[in-house]
Amino acid sequence: MYLEIRILEKSSNRVKLYLKDIPLHVLNSIRRTMIADVPTMAIDTVVFTVNSTIFYDEYIAHRLGLIPLTSEAALEKYKPPEECREASERGLFTEDCFVKLDLEGENPPSSNSIITLYSGDLRTSDPDVKPVYDKIPIAILSPGQMISFEAYARLGRGREHAKWSPVSVAAHKFIADISIDNEKCRAPDCTDCINVCPRNILIIDNDRVKVSSDRIFDCSLCKVCEEACKYRAIKINWRKDEYILLVETTGALSPKRVLLEAIKVLESKLDSLVESLKMEGITK
Amino acid sequence: MATRAKVFPTPDDRWIVMKKFFEEKGLVRQHLDSYNRFISKTLPEIIDEFKVIEVPGIAKVVIKGFRIGKPVVRAIEGFEKEVTPLECRLRNLTYAAPVYLRLSIVTDRGEEQEQEILLMDLPVMLKSDIDPLSKMSRDELVKNGEDPKDPGGYFIINGSEKVLIAQEDLASNNVLVDYASESSSATHLAKVISVSRGRRSQLIIERRKDGILYASIQGLRIPLVILMAALGLSSEIDITYAVSLDPEIQTYLMPSIIQAQTIFPKFEIPEDATPEERKRLEEQHRRKTIEAALDYIGVRIAIGRPRQERIERARRFLDEYLLPHIGTDPSPETRLKKAYFIAQMANKLLELVLGRRKPDDKDHYRNKRLKLAGDLLAQLVRHYLANYFRREIRNAIERNYSKYKRVDLRQLIKPGMLTDRVLHAMATGNWPGGKTGVSQLLDRTNLMSTLSHLRRVVSPLARNQPHFEARELHPTQWGRMCPFETPEGANIGLVKNLALMAYVSVGVPEEEVEPMLYKLGVKPIKEVIKEAKKQLQEGYEYPEFLTWSKVYLNGRLIGYHPDGTKLANEIRKLRRQGKISSEVNVAYIKSDYINEVFVNTDAGRIRRPLLIVENGKPKLKPNHVKKIMTGEWSFEDLVRNGIVEYLDADEEENAYIALNPEDLTPEHTHMEIWTPAILGITASIIPYPEHNQSPRNTYEAAMAKQSLGLYAANFQRRMDTRGHFLHYPQKPLVQTRAMEIIGYNERPAGQNMVVAVMSFTGYNIEDALIMNKGSIDRGLARSTFFRLYSTIEYKYPGGQEDRITIPSSNVRGYRGPKAYEKLDEDGIVTPETPVKGGDVLIGKISPPRFFTAQEYTVGAGITRQDASIVTRHGEKGVVDAVMITTDGEGNKLVKVRVRDLRIPELGDKFASRHGQKGVIGLIVPHENMPFTEDGIVPDLIINPHAFPSRMTVGQLIESIAGKAAALEGHSIDATPFYKESIENLQITLKRYGYPETGMEAMYDGRTGEILHSPIFIGIVYYQKLHHMVADKIHARARGPVQILTRQPTEGRAKEGGLRFGEMERDCLVGHGASLLLKEQMLDKSDRTIIYVCELCGHIGWYDRVRGKYICPIHKDKGKLKPVEVSYAFKLLLQELMSLCIMPRLRIKDIAREE
Question: Which pTM was predicted?
């Protein structure tokens, strides 16, 4: 059995898919896995040697953590999150787990301008893992201020902290099934439902209210038209097992990769379930 | 609003005027003006009052002048150094400027040369005229470590910022009439509190049930007529005419006059007397009458003294204590003025009796005055000068003279004598006269709480009495006091806050105005009476003055004017032309019987600016607005040109004020500049307040002062005892215009959050909130908490001193090596060290407070005591900053600031700007949160039950407006009355493809199912309040006990137990759970074993040396048995013994019973 999939929209970090005949629980599992379980690289530990900026160490560390790092290659290169987490807790910044990013900045006391340090100023030990965007401000140095730190990035999952979540948006929507009872409808005398619809889904055609077929994907199921109709002539429902999935990534991974990784993670979870069942002797 | 016609001036035009007002005056102008006036006017006057201090026969000291220096600090080495406020805050110094007196001394040998001597250090109000900060530019302020947005208006006393809270008081020198209470013997009362130059005396005139008027002053009750006679109104006709020209009122005076007849001498003129003789006799009778009246008073104050002395004493008494505001000099003119004032009181009282006027409304703002920082300081300085300065100098002169036969000026004045007392009052808030809480520690939770604190007004009425009328909102508070901002509970309505444009008068001398009034045709009262008398003698029916208007100047009747309306209008004209001070207000009050003009020039009246309207057209014209916009004109130029004027509550009674230009009619006299300015600082940040139920705005006004934000831009250079700052404060998307002038956008205290209204898991019932973990991870509502730990290395008398160092293990109270391990070699922690409760931050050893017997015997090495500063129990953090300096006495002062990152957690408190507060009830992982089709996940989920009963519709509108603002990419104006219309916002939503209801279809993140009902979701500005779980979480199993009772300590800071109270006890009693009860009340508390003698019932003890139990009666023959009791019970027994009561415990062994 094949699913019907159509790409509705696609750009470097955003994709909108139309999916048909996929059960909701499967789709939602994939969506949840994308948010919480697909690993990416993010700075986890920062060792400050100097920091005389007005921002506190923990404040800068938090900012650093939220900088998305390119993780396409890192997923293969580095050990999985669970192992690295232990290493990080023990303070062992091994090369198979961690990428070192360091930054040194100084604004001499004699200067009379301020310096802004950006994510692009971070020096990385692995060219595959670097900030996705170069213009994310980290800290501002006034004359006489200095900063120097080593930051260690590792793989992690969104479940642990949102900074490891590869997606900023992962949402699906239902597709509307609008039924209009032409017996009750008073069109064209009454066009309340048309006026009230924010997405212009409804149109008047031959003095009848009709659903614009090419805009049906846009319906947000807000049911405003249902409310607006005095004659209860309009009914909003949704199509079964037809969804639109919207994914927007932080740039750490491509949407395609996120989706595939999510499926992989889900798969391996199921595999380990099967393994466990076998181990326990419940199945053969 | 779209429906509002674009009539000039439009809201935008009016806003320009309003903004100019604040650009020019700032937000704490009342305090600054009051203090500046104190420095420039009142202080010289006060010093002038003490100009000559004389010790008869020896010398006199003459003050020639004085000078105030720059704020300085005096080092113990002796030199003076200019000081900045920041240094004062950090080093626990006082920001004060020296006041020097130029003195010379006059002895019998002649006048000695003038010398300049330091009188005192006067606390300097920040940003006042004598503060160098007031003249600094923004950059200079920054260089001096100040926040350029800091409003000033407070003092720095011993390093802490103190505000002098404005005190609301009944207007002094004004006559108030009222019905007497049922229980008293009087029927009606007229009261006046006369205040002048620190003198304060109350005069009450009462009408007894028999119709006779009495005056009471200083606990002395004198018949009114006698008092007036004593003041020089010697004849009945004089008294009657002074009181009123109206025959009806005169009739009501009759009982008093008849009663007074008894003491007055008889007056008989022989028929054949020549005119000269007649005149002589009249004069003689006049003198006799006055003396008889004075004697009547004298008998009561100088009992048993000779008549001549009695009269003299009575005169002095009247001069000094009666109505001091009219004058205290012993001249017949002043006495006569006082007599007229009393007559005026009697008249007002009789008018009340006749039902011609209603009792005065004590809650009307015309009868109220504010005492601001300057007035309070003046009171303080005058009090101490009068009570100590004069006496000290006299004593010093005498002492000096008797010792050395000459007087040295330098030894006369010790500067500490005044400084210490003034500083003590300002540090504790205890003012002379028993007032407490006058000076308070400035609230630095956020900028708004600071500003609101500086604009607070308290009423001195007792909080334990109901005073319902005083607490209620009075119509005259419109534009003067914020209708929302008042605390809940005991202080409701007594503590108030100034409305935005309210402005307090500083006062103009009466002398500037009085002659002008006469020139305008006011006939002085004395002439009126003279003429009326003459008319009467010549046989007119009624004096024509009856139809004239009475003219009052600051509550004192000064004369009559034929046409009150004309007079009032002329005064107004002069004021608008700038010919008299703009601080003068005039009101013309007319009813069937009352026809009075009130001219006020005194200080403390709350006034508010209004646009003047003539013939239905505001005098403000578009070119004026343009001039203001370009900066060519200031706000004061509007006042000077008669376009804007300030009205006090009295004059506002004459005004007909339009809210908006569309409402103007020819009858209108004024128009509001900016209607939303009726609100105070904190209420002004509420968007759409007019859509909320009123108490919700009150709640929000209180909560806004607890929200975390950026309280001062120089927070890293300050060392506040506690402080919070929010990590990523945001400008609200839904703005009010007032935020711009308050500075809320530069120092915000909250964040815009995506808020969905739904129940979701139900973990948001009862006002809880559900928060998104993803949002928290991304930095939502993070804050940093600061706490200051500080200590001083004192030097004690006798060569002992503290030492800041790592204590060695032999000091008493040594905490073990682990506690001190974070200390550096100087005994202070290093910055950026993580610390937790119990860790020593500053190691300090002190000399022992008491010597034990052991130390006496050992001799040489006395043990020192550990006095280290330890991180508070239950707190943790990172050492943020360490400061080592010296205080004013030259002692080493160490301050350590510890910071702690506060990430939102279960139980932290949040509130929207509509009085909707709640604590986090659940933190939901991002993937479980509901989402919209765009993938929008709410930061916060609140329960729909928060709305129906509270009716905070404003929050719903804010939510829609916030959403529209986010879509459009600019903030939305939600200023009350002038906001952007809600319909427009809905159109915006629809344009961007969102339903105009603000509701969207959402999907459950856990199942992926659509939620069957669309969810109301939008953006609301939420504030993080400073009540955080981290500061409150507490539990205990075992821990410290109190020394006296051995019961567990109380309170989190002392690691205390949780009280098992009487209701909890009742519960166990009710269940009959006796063993559980015993465990709770005894075993877990202060269980002890005592030994009781079975024979006598007394408590015995164990003698360790002999290994025996001893009974106090039977000695070792006693039969002592261990008994388990509460230690508190043991204490009770012993306490009874100390009262010579002999408690006996009859004990029996239960096992032996059967």
Answer: 0.91
